[in-house]
Amino acid sequence: MTSQTTYRVGLIGAGIQLSKSPALHMHEGAAHGLDYVYELVDITARNLPESALPELVAELQARGFAGTNITHPFKQAVIPLLDELSEDARMLGAVNTVVFKDGKRVGHNTDWYGFHENFAQGLPTVSRARTLLAGAGGAGVAVAHALLKLGIQHLDILDQDPARAKRLADALNTRFGMERAFAVTDAAASLPLADGFVNATPVGMLAHPGIPVDPVLLEARHWVADIVYVPLETQLLATAKSKGCRVLPGGGMTVYQAVGAFRLFCGREPDAARMTADFLKLCAADKVT
Q1: Mean pLDDT over residues 257-286, rounded?
Q2: CA-to-CA distance for 218 and 230, rounded, in angstroms?
Q3: In Å, how far are 112, 177, 186, 223, 226 from 145, measured between CA atoms?
Q4: If DSSP states are collapsed to H, E and C, what string results for the chain?
Q5: 221: pLDDT confidence band, cut at 50, 70 and 90?
Q6: CATH H-level superfamily of 112-249
């Protein structure tokens, strides 16, 4: 436990003005008696190119921030800008939390833990024989790791870049010591054989509307999980629910990755139940359904 009581942290990403992270972190900080400010650094709002990332990280470090969260599209691009990586971040090759300490930038990954906890609590009894995952980017890397940790026996990985899906599958099979992950190029060939579908792409966000898979492929027997949480019920989840599927919104992943990030930023143990309740209140206040 540190005696420090003032913290400035941020979130660097694109199209993040509706993020719940600032309120979620600041409310938890207040509950700990901290002067805790969370700032959005949105390249879309600032009209900056993705190439501005190095300057933005340097800006927050120079301003004395304790650290910053990292989101789409920078979870892998930020790695060359860091001095050190935690074991999870190094293993996954993706960073969602950067801590500034003693003049160094240390990258961490709390995304996989966030998805793991959300799934374990939200879909505890679903079949884990075979799953199709859409997205092999920074978030997809973390979700894929969590899925194998959760006991998924056969994981098909679909990405717009087939080579990226293949790299992720190979990395997972090496890490877990057996062939359980497979790169695929056609959802129509995979989903009929799968028990569940996970969206780890930005598709479904307000800035990226739509469904990442042909809805005709979804059947009542499928369970469907999304990592998008604005809106809390994406078009994918609404469609799946209308077909009788069990669904898992992305809000829980957001809460649990925030739990991990808060702990890293200020060295205090957050109350996950309180943060979950707070998140749901924030969504209700915004009428995010």
Answers
A1: 94
A2: 22
A3: 7, 13, 21, 18, 15
A4: CCCCCEEEEEEEECCCCCCCHHHHHHHHHHHCCCEEEEEEEECCCCCCCHHHHHHHHHHHHHCCCCEEEECCCCCCCCHHHCCEECHHHHHHCCCCEEEEECCEEEEECCHHHHHHHHHHHHCCCCCCCEEEEECCCHHHHHHHHHHHHCCCCEEEEECCCHHHHHHHHHHHHHHHCCCCEEEECCHHHHHHHCCEEEECCCECECCCCCCCCCHHHCCCCCEEEECCCCCCCCHHHHHHHHCCCEEECCHHHHHHHHHHHHHHHHCCCCCHHHHHHHHHHHHHHCCCC
A5: very high
A6: NAD(P)-binding Rossmann-like Domain (3.40.50.720)
Of residues 205 and 214, more confidence is placed in 214
Map out the domains of the chain as residue ranges.
Answer: 6-109+252-285, 112-249
Is the confidence at residue 2, as pLDDT, over 90? no
| Most distant CA pair in the chain, distance | 56
* In contact, 289 and 231? CB cutoff 8 Å: yes
What does the mean pLDDT of the chain come to? Answer: 95
Per-residue pLDDT, 279: 94
Displacement of CA 202 from its chain's centroid (Å): 10
Same fold, 6-109+252-285 and 112-249: yes
pLDDT at 289 over 60: no
Q: Across-strand partners of 20? A: none
75 carries an active-site annotation: yes
Assigned CATH for 6-109+252-285: 3.40.50.10860
- Answer whether residue 52 shows pLDDT above 90: yes
- Find the catalytic residue in 20, 75, 104, 281: 75
